[in-house]
Structure of Homoserine dehydrogenase:
Amino acid sequence: MAESLGIALIGCGTVGTGVAKILTHHANRVTTRTGGKTVAVKRVVARDAGKGRDPAIPSASVGTDWTTAVADPAVQIVVELIGGTTTAKQIVLAALAAGKHVVTANKALLAEHGQELFAAARKAERVICFEAAVAGGIPIIRAMGESLAANQITGIQGILNGTSNFILSSMADNGASYANALTEAQRLGYAEADPTLDVDGSDAAHKLAVLAQIAFGVTAKPSDIEKQGIADIQAMDTRYAAELGYTIKLLAEAWAADKTVALHVAPVLLRKTDPLAQVRGAFNAILVTGDVVGETLYQGPGAGMMPTASSVVADIIDIAVGRAQKTFTAAKLWSGSREFTIVPSEKVRSKFYLRLLVKDEPGTLSEVCRCLANEQISIASVIQHEPLRETEKVVPLVIMTHLAETGRFRTAAAVIDKLTSVAGPAVYFSVDD
Amino acid sequence: MAESLGIALIGCGTVGTGVAKILTHHANRVTTRTGGKTVAVKRVVARDAGKGRDPAIPSASVGTDWTTAVADPAVQIVVELIGGTTTAKQIVLAALAAGKHVVTANKALLAEHGQELFAAARKAERVICFEAAVAGGIPIIRAMGESLAANQITGIQGILNGTSNFILSSMADNGASYANALTEAQRLGYAEADPTLDVDGSDAAHKLAVLAQIAFGVTAKPSDIEKQGIADIQAMDTRYAAELGYTIKLLAEAWAADKTVALHVAPVLLRKTDPLAQVRGAFNAILVTGDVVGETLYQGPGAGMMPTASSVVADIIDIAVGRAQKTFTAAKLWSGSREFTIVPSEKVRSKFYLRLLVKDEPGTLSEVCRCLANEQISIASVIQHEPLRETEKVVPLVIMTHLAETGRFRTAAAVIDKLTSVAGPAVYFSVDD
């Protein structure tokens, strides 16, 4: 008799339904890909067990009590899809203690409790797989952890939040304001009613923390990842960026040098010809730099029922094949490696886009330039148009700098903010050339 | 004592030197990534054993006799990098028979002898790994074989030949003729003195055969893959394509439907906004469509010393970790699967770009259109400029069609070729919208 693996799906919303669909509708395919093992959903745990569900989910298996599901001897793999970090953590620890493997799409859980969970998995001699936790259907976890194993990764630039990318694409393509683009994203289901965690960079920061663990072995606390969201970007910024040949994208970046790594999430101006600049709508993409291979790019759907389920099922198949167990043992993730140290981003050198609203009077440009010069920052170009109306006393001033240390640029910007000729805070983004 | 793996490098040109560099200069990294096993080059086989080499290659280990190297009990993995299909096949079979695992970058060998070699590997209970055989540093073999395991792949579109892509990029960017772009590519080392196998689609066809094996389990003979090279593309074609909003790329394509798959290599017009249209110079990229995940894109360096070595060393690490053995057993590649049948591309539906040189006289356009109409092909747009000089009696005529069956389009083109008002053969490419 062919060996069989039982799955408990804890959480049965969009992604859980997608996983059940694949395992049910494509059962033969999954058996072929595992090399002959059948995989079946034995338990489904949902808040409302009586709710009508997709026919792929056998109603007899649906319950509300995760403890019974996790303890079921017919279950070998627990798939945690409820999100959050409290109950999810209890479920994962209980599953491991009961001798089950775990598959999760929960980046927040990994970012916050990775070390504890992975220690528990090692103790239980079980695995935690998480391809779906970052960039949905894009196999970035395997790419960085296995395919690029000959490399020390030196840089990561990722569009990891589809909501933000959708909003920025609308702003760039249609000249929409941030507020209008957000409303449109909400209307189309790309943004939640409260979009904060997507647009302030929190979601991307969680994902970056997971990628940084794989690439550098560092366990990043939330405070280790500087975050700047997209809410301050104005329609004029996307317009000026375009005028200069750039597109603004929210990037999660990691830059390594001399066994240190700087991690941050921020809007960045990318040349229009940069592959990441071309990534539209809710798609995700990650540009990974390895010291041996150079740059490789991975692009695809970053969320959604079936793309995310594709990654969850790939993990299930990996466990069935026995590959995941080999990877888990060799990779030693969240084991407290001290090879790399996380450093603040202030030492990272970058070009900068600086947009000010200044009083249209003599001497203003000279004052601003002096503030930059005081920090040894030289200017590459300046855009200052005529005021639109003659009565307008405040005009936008855009400056592109040459390479400068982030910390020194911030110092200069803080001084510029205090100039009496400057109305409103400096808006600035780094520029990737 | 930590376990140790010995490597025999058979062939020590560019890629072999790159592999030796990684294993020597980054020995600690490799040991960490294998979970503690050391990996060392024990034998190097080269045509000229006395030749001066990179310091990474210990001269004491260099010889000219592959049989001794393959038989050495200190060797557990044989890395075949000599290319060609005769001696390379003997080496791989001998290595497997001697109980060694094999890593190869040889797409021609796999395309032509995959079935025999994989049968020998299964018999010997050893593995053949080949990440470097397709698209150099891009981990497309793992992506398709492992990461997308939940999917039936339904489409592949790959820029798999860097030489052709370099030439086409030059033609598009600088308006160069094919001949001038080729000369430039040769001067810069992107094209060989005899570029035939690169520019006629043979190299890309070998790589497509390997990808088709992974995606569909089909063993494609050379005649199963229709090939059209880039030598017929004229400067005016890249110009007209640009005028219509397209870029011409040499694509290796696989399209599956109803358990059949069509395989071909040909120039294709891609919308300028298509991610594959943006791939410049010698880079490679593959757009993979899966029935669950949708489209994912993989892009990076398709050749070169270190990118290719990155993939070879990833395979070595996979064998050391034990992952490759699990994959090899489960994937059953080149085992004569009959799930998919290869069909000719004539049934594939596509839009077409048709460029003719026609006599500038009344009735010509009408005649051409009638030939298309006879095959039920409708026309989307026509470009016919004034002749450049009044004395010019032959002018280019460009027609874009709506969707049509490839076979019927070819029939129409053959009829058009015989029209007395048409000077010179029809040049046509499919158009991807």
User: Anything to note?
Assistant: The mean pLDDT of chain A is 95. Chain A is about 35% helix and 25% strand.
